[in-house]
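Priority: medium. Attachment 1 of 2:
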């Protein structure tokens, strides 16, 4: 049970991280959508993610479905605690997905679907950040059930993490557009990425300082061995990624800023994992306690070992097929 539950925790964490870094940049493109200069740039921005955006969300389904299947107790606690942000996130993703199809089929109502694309992107990102903040600040559990109130997810800290995720996703979106476009749009996104990078790092700093105050256990994990080692390594690694981001922007590199921005997100995700471990729901529910029976974990693992490589393969193939710069003259169909 113990070993299988931690293997599954790693699989769920991998699915969530993959979703964040993949869907994060296409949500970021939607957040930046109103900054496009005219229909030509809007079409170029949307076309840059049109072939891949829905495949990116596969990982959200895998993470949520996997949580339900192998950590049913965690799922049963998280859902009542975060009903509102999760429902709003899903509705926003629906509106955003519909906008991909409808804005190309209308002329007079195009502004409606532009608003849906932007609004769906920013609301989804904001709700993901709020859900993250609510998890970090802890969920009240009693008798193996959620024992908190309807509005416990809403706090100054969760609102802060919500804004932080919006800014961070916008950075990913800007660096993705730098990678996929040329000329005026690319240069303008290079300028935006500077400010968004600085804002993202500022939010990382503030959230990192405030996180230990959400629960005394966080202090213990980061300030005592071996956690204190990570307290030195992680900030250094984030600074190295930030250096790569800004030097890449200064040198007008295409891929370096995007890879650096992704690296910042990966490092932040690792930091969250260090803060949570060995809990799956802070402050008290551990990975082993929340896991399904050993037989269920083993059965689900067999299918996952087959499924995950398949998803990785077709995702990589899609990115390979649609590699390179976007042609502004080509439309989305």
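Attachment 2 of 2:
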């Amino acid at each position: 049970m113990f070993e299988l539950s931690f293997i599954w925790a790693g699989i769920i964490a991998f699915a969530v991280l993959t979703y964040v870094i993949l869907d994060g940049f296409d949500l970021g493109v939607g957040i930046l959508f109103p900054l496009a200069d005219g229909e030509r740039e809007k079409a170029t921005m949307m076309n840059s993610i049109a072939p891949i955006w829905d495949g990116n969300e596969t990982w959200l389904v895998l993470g949520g479905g996997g949580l339900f299947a192998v950590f049913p107790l965690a799922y049963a606690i998280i859902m009542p605690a975060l009903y509102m942000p999760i429902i709003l996130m899903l509705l926003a993703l629906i509106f955003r997905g519909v906008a991909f199809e409808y804005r190309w089929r209308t002329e007079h109502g195009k502004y409606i679907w532009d608003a849906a694309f932007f609004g769906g992107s920013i609301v989804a990102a904001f709700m993901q950040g709020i859900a993250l903040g609510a998890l970090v600040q802890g969920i009240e559990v009693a008798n193996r059930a959620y024992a908190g109130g309807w509005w416990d997810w809403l706090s100054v800290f969760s609102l802060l993490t919500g804004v932080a995720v919006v800014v961070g996703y916008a950075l990913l979106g800007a660096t993705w557009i730098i990678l996929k476009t040329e000329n005026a749009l690319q240069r303008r996104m290079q300028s935006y990425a500077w400010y968004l990078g600085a804002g993202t790092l500022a939010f990382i700093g503030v959230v990192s300082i405030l996180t230990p105050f959400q629960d005394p256990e966080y202090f213990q994990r980061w300030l005592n061995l071996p956690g204190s080692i990570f307290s030195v390594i992680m900030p250094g690694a984030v600074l190295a990624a930030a250096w790569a981001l800004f030097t890449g922007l200064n040198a007008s590199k295409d891929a370096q800023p995007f890879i650096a921005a992704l690296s910042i997100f990966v490092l932040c995700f690792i930091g969250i994992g260090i803060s949570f471990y060995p809990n799956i729901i802070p402050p008290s529910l551990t990975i082993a306690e929340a896991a399904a029976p050993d037989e269920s974990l083993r059965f689900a693992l067999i299918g996952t070992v087959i499924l995950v490589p398949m998803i990785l393969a077709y995702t990589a193939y899609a990115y390979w097929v649609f590699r390179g710069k976007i042609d502004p003259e080509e439309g989305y169909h």
